[in-house]
Amino acid sequence: MRDAPINLRALPEQRDLIDYAASLLGKNRSDFMLEAACERAQAVVLNRTFFGLDSEKFKQFTELLDAPKVANAGLARLIVDGGVKAPPDGGARLSKSVNNRGGYVPPLLGDGHQNGSSMSRG
Questions:
Q1: Rounded to whole angstroms, what are the CA distances from 94 to 21, 50, 109, 119?
Q2: What own/partner pairs with CB < 8 Å and gap ≥ 24 does 112-116 have?
């Protein structure tokens, strides 16, 4: 059951365009807007979490991951100085979105779009 309200203001022309597009699909305004917003939100999230590589680039990527670690004074300073802070909820929200392999699964995306599992090997 949908019970979380989302409110916004629009220009009359925007509302009319949305209503017209919704009617073309046989949907009401709320259903159309929610579907469109969720599709866009998923695209934004996937754009930030998915990247595809051809086989040569994937090989270079894995070699970099497997290479010996190099000291990073800036990163160490950031961590020591407290520049990395836990989310206000202590990570409780994030912990609900971790798959069984430890990868982050954005809400509403499901198992098909887990971090790391979507990388192309060629």
A1: 35, 18, 14, 22
A2: 113/42, 113/46, 113/49, 113/50, 115/49
CA dihedral 98, 38, 121, 114 (to 10 degrees): 10
pLDDT tens sequence across 3-28: 999 999 999 999 999 999 999 999 99
Query: The dihedral of CA 26, 31, 36, 42: what is its sign?
Result: negative
User: Helix axis angle, 12-24 relative to 29-49, nearest 10°?
Assistant: 90
Contact present, 2 and 11 (Cβ < 8 Å): no
The pLDDT-based confidence of 35 (bands split at 50, 70, 90) is very high
Domain ranges of the chain: 12-81
Q: Which helix (H) or strand (E) holds 64?
A: helix 55-66
